[in-house]
Amino acid sequence: MKANAHNRKLNRYVLNDQIVCTGFLSFKDAEECAQEKGGILVEVSFKDGNDNPQITDEAGLIEKKLHFYVYAGDEYKFIHSSDPGFRKYADELQKIKASNDKDSPEEKYISNAEIEISEDPIIVLKNDHFQSVTSRERSKYLKHAKVYEIGISLPKS
């Protein structure tokens, strides 16, 4: 595994005659890495609760310039930490947790370490109600989700 521009380890998969790397924090990050390494952008899917990637174009990540998308049925919505609405939901979850925990006023305004420290967190909603917080990696195994990530394809050396 190699680290990208944000010093994050990338996932490396060997598929037939190519090496595919995923785990980029943004579409731009993947574009820059592809240019640096002489690779091409690809969309990678993880389906059926496994970690076996397939190259696809089902979610249209390249056209939409997205780096990550999850589909687990119409009732579920996965909000990635880089999505514009994430902060709003994270703030609401902190308020709910503080209220439930009966924290002191000082503690209510200290950020929730679980949300802040969790690597690449994703908020899962079911029918627009909070379901859970998970990671990008664990989302592959939840709710029969189809996980799509931007990746780069490099020739095998």
Outline the structure in words.
This protein has helices at 27-37, 61-64, 86-101, 105-108, 113-117; strands spanning 11-15, 18-22, 40-46, 54-56, 68-71, 76-80, 121-126, 129-135, 146-155. It is of the alpha+beta class and 157 residues long. The strands form 2 sheets. Strands 1, 2, 3, 4, 5 and 9 form a 6-stranded antiparallel sheet that branches. It has a 3-stranded antiparallel sheet with strand order 6-7-8, covered by helices on one side. A hairpin with a 7-residue loop joins strand 3 (40-46) and strand 4 (54-56). The longest helix has 16 residues, at 86-101. The two termini are 15 Å apart.
Task: Give a quick set of tags describing it.
3-stranded antiparallel beta sheet, 6-stranded antiparallel beta sheet, elongated, disordered N terminus, about 160 residues, about 35% strand, about 25% helix, alpha+beta
What's the short version?
By secondary structure, the chain is α+β, with helices and mostly antiparallel strands. The protein contains five helices and nine strands.
Question: Topology, please?
Answer:
Blueprint: E1 11-15, E2 18-22, H1 27-37, E3 40-46, E4 54-56, H2 61-64, E5 68-71, E6 76-80, H3 86-101, H4 105-108, H5 113-117, E7 121-126, E8 129-135, E9 146-155
Antiparallel strand pairs: 1-2, 2-9, 3-4, 3-9, 5-9, 6-7, 7-8
